[in-house]
Amino acid sequence: MQSGQKNESDSMKHYIGNKFAVLFHGPEVFDKGYAKRIIDLIPEASFYQAGTMGRTAAYDHNLENVISIPDLPGKVIRESIECDALMIVIYPKSEFSGQSFVRIILDNAKLSIPVMHVDCRTGMYVVWQGKFHDEIIKSLEELGFVQGNAISPSKLFSFENNLTTRHLQACEVGDFVLCNNLIIGKATSENVTISTNEGNIITTSGLEVKEHGLEKLGKINLLTAKCCSTQQLRDDSICPRVTRKEGKGVAFVNHCAADVYDLTRHCEGAVAVGDDTSRIVGDILYRFSMPVYAITDGDWDKLIIKERFFPGSVVVEVEHDDAVGEAVYDIIFNSNLKLDIPFDTLKDKLNSFLEDKIVQLKKY
Description:
Blueprint: H1 8-16, E1 20-25, H2 28-31, H3 34-41, E2 46-49, H4 52-60, E3 66-68, H5 73-79, E4 85-90, H6 95-109, E5 115-119, E6 124-129, H7 134-142, E7 146-147, E8 157-160, E9 163-167, E10 176-179, E11 182-187, E12 193-197, E13 200-205, E14 207-209, H8 211-217, E15 227-230, E16 250-254, H9 260-263, E17 269-273, H10 275-286, E18 292-296, E19 314-317, H11 321-332, E20 338-339, H12 343-353, E21 360-363
Parallel strand pairs: 1-2, 1-4, 2-3, 4-5, 6-7, 16-17, 17-18, 18-19
Antiparallel strand pairs: 5-6, 8-9, 9-12, 10-11, 10-15, 11-14, 12-13, 16-20, 19-21
Helix pairs in contact: 5-6
């Protein structure tokens, strides 16, 4: 290299500054290759993602430099990412839903730094505030992205008669509607609203409510809650990356698949309660060669369509998985989230404990 000549990495670092952060959201940006392209484009940046399925997708594609923070994107940006410029990379259902998502993030994060988002579905980028160096813009455009404008916001929230109402964006009929990672119903209209009073969901519209989901949800702050709609969490054609993870003991995961990484850290296997929870936990832990004892009751919504459990796993169906799960937690786990015994020993113990409650049993 000649004296005074800068390499590409040094040059880009000059353009992005010392604290340029990229936040990926959703598994599609990884599965369709866009995350890798952005990482190659801005290698000196810091890379983050904030969701369970996004974390799994980053793992599948060997993107080890993407830091996963298990929290709402707005909170992650506000509390966990230190930067002087931010790029949010998404693959939304539509241009409108993508911009609505970014707007909610920015409203929650209340940032004063430059912010842009890159919409990988439409091939558009939008600068929301501040200014980005021309070299960043040029590099995005060389990848085929074109500049767009922020659309006028529709009514995201309304307030009347002590009710706070949230208007969900870009729902499709038949979508699962989730609030803080729990299914609360299915969309019967493109216009879905959720209304709360003092944190309790009082009324909805455009939604076939799943009462059990509302019971599990409890009180929420509708202004900051993660509310979304989807047909399924991730394309089931994706080939998982499988490795072996060493650990001891068994974790207890009760209707909280979003916490699976934290709960199963250093474990050998897991007990999962809930039909969709069990399939999500099984799908994720399959990648780490970890078996699951799944307690279900037949109300599988199929957020994940394809079942994937590591050999040695067991799926049992009972009459009421909530009641059985509570009994297992109280009596077998002694009200702890981890039990320090081998998975096979616990499996035999559970088969005996649940013998008169099991309607159906499937071994993997």
